[in-house]
Every structure is written in C-alpha cells, then in structure tokens.
Design goal:
Elements lengths: L1 E6 L12 E4 L3 E5 L8 H5 L3 E3 L5 H4 L2 H8 L7 E5 L1 H10 L20 E5 L5 E4 L2 E7 L7 E6 L4 E4 L7 H9 L3 E7 L7 H7 L4 H8 L7 E5 L6 H10 L7 E2 L5 E3 L1
Parallel strand pairs: 3-4, 4-5, 5-6, 10-11, 11-12, 12-13
Antiparallel strand pairs: 1-2, 1-14, 2-3, 7-8, 8-9, 9-10
Helix pairs in contact: 7-8
C-alpha cells in the first residue's frame, strides 16, 4: 500500500496545508486542508476517514468532503474515531447549526456518512491493510495510527507530547520502516509546547532517545514561519536517526 502526504503543516498560507494523508486511493488519515489537493473524482473514491482527534486542523474538510461527493456515491463514508472524538463531531460540527448531520442525509437508512468507534489497540483490517489506533498524549482525547502493509509499516504519532506508550509500541514493531512524528514549536516556545501538549526539538530529542529501532523519522506539524528554525534546532541536536522534514506529496511504500 502507498501513503501520500496531502498536508503536513501546523497551519496554512501559500502552499501549506494541514494534516491529511491518503492511503492508496480510498482511505484518509485525518482530513485537514490537505485534501484540497484531490480532484472531485479522487474525493469521491474515499470510503474511510481515520481521525486522530477533533481539532480543526485535522477535521476541517470532512464536512465539505461529505457534502461535495455524498450524492456521487452508493455507500456512506465511514468516519473512524474514539468515542470522544466522534461525540465532539456529532455535538459541535454535524449538529445542524454548524453543518447538517449527514448521518441522516438523505435519510437514516442510506446516509452519506456513518460513524464507527475505535479503541486504542484495536486493529481494523481493510482489504489486508491493517490500521491500529495507538496512544497519543494531547489536550483532547487523541490517537496516532500504525499502518501495516505486511512487508513494512509506518507509525504516525498524531498530535502528542511526551508519550512513553508510543515508543514502547514502536520498539515492538518488527517491520517498522517509517515514523512520522510531530514537532510543532521551536525551543523558545517550549512552555507553550508543554501547555498545548505538543513537542519542540528539545522534547523530540528526549522522545527519540526512547526508540531503539532504525526507522526513518519524518517531522510533521511544524508551525508556519518557523519551519526552518525548528528543523535547524533538530539538526543541531545531531540525532542518531537524523530526522527529516515531511513534505507535501511525499509517498511512502508499505
């Protein structure tokens, strides 16, 4: 299977898009503004959306996606998330005030979308592709995802700060080839990173020291305007694994 990066920024502006990854042609991991990279036909092929958490930069385009392609499809788009994440979407987005409830449109028997609760550690298998929710440590209930194609696999941390459980899992995955890890703030903003439960380069260094494998490390969720500074601070730390910046349209073969 192939994972394509549609958006990996902590904000917007110019060619920056917020978090979204396309797995093959039918699965999204988060649905931030990055899905604007897809054509209408490509959007209509999305059957599954795995959501890390309810923050706007990760779910912003779900309402517009469902609205745009729901009538083109013969089955609902499935939104996967923890019970807390799905409850937030139901109460605050698809509530008829912010956006229509497409789990009832055109009717409850044949809706444009449906919800499916997932739990940390639960493996979802879609045509031999294994997707497992893994722990994240954020200011709202959140998860990351382990994507296993059999030959190799990838871990996406989601939005997280210090997270021993993540590295314990990563150290057990024998076919782990890639890790996508967030680092949202520069070192001068460490207090803000801690408060908002994100990482900065100094915290990233401490986290990577917990990892004993040799997977390639890619950095995501950098704040616009601080990209070069954050990556320079990471490079200065001279990590064993030499983390690289994640790029739009990068493709990972799993």
């Amino acid at each position: 299977m192939k994972l394509r990066v549609l958006g990996c920024s902590g904000g917007i502006g110019g060619n920056l898009h917020t978090t979204s990854f396309l797995l093959d042609n039918d699965i999204l991991i988060d649905a931030g503004t990055g899905i604007n990279e897809l054509s209408l036909t490509e959007l209509s092929m999305v059957n599954h959306i795995f959501i890390t958490h309810s923050h706007l930069d990760h779910i912003a385009c779900i309402p517009l996606l469902v609205d745009s392609v729901g009538f083109m499809r013969d089955k609902p788009i499935t939104l996967y998330g923890t019970v807390d994440t799905l409850d937030t979407l139901k109460q605050h987005i698809f509530n008829w005030k912010i956006w229509p409830d497409f789990s009832e449109i055109p009717n409850a028997q044949q809706p444009f979308m449906r919800y499916q609760e997932i739990k940390v550690g639960e493996e979802i298998v879609l045509q031999s592709r294994k997707i497992t929710a893994i722990p994240a440590n954020h200011v709202v209930p959140a998860v990351g995802y382990h994507l296993d194609g059999g030959r190799s696999s990838l871990i996406f941390s989601g939005d997280t700060t210090t997270n021993d459980a993540l590295w314990a899992i990563a150290n057990r995955v024998s076919n782990l080839k890639y890790m996508i890890v967030e680092t949202a703030f520069s070192n001068s903003e460490k207090d803000l990173a801690v408060l908002s439960k994100h990482l900065c380069p100094s915290l990233l260094v401490e986290e990577l020291a917990k990892f004993h494998g040799n997977a390639e490390i890619y950095i995501t969720h950098l704040k616009p305007g601080e990209v070069e500074l954050i990556m320079r601070e990471i490079d200065t730390a001279k990590q064993r694994l030499h983390p690289k910046m994640l790029l739009n349209n990068q493709i990972f073969d799993l």
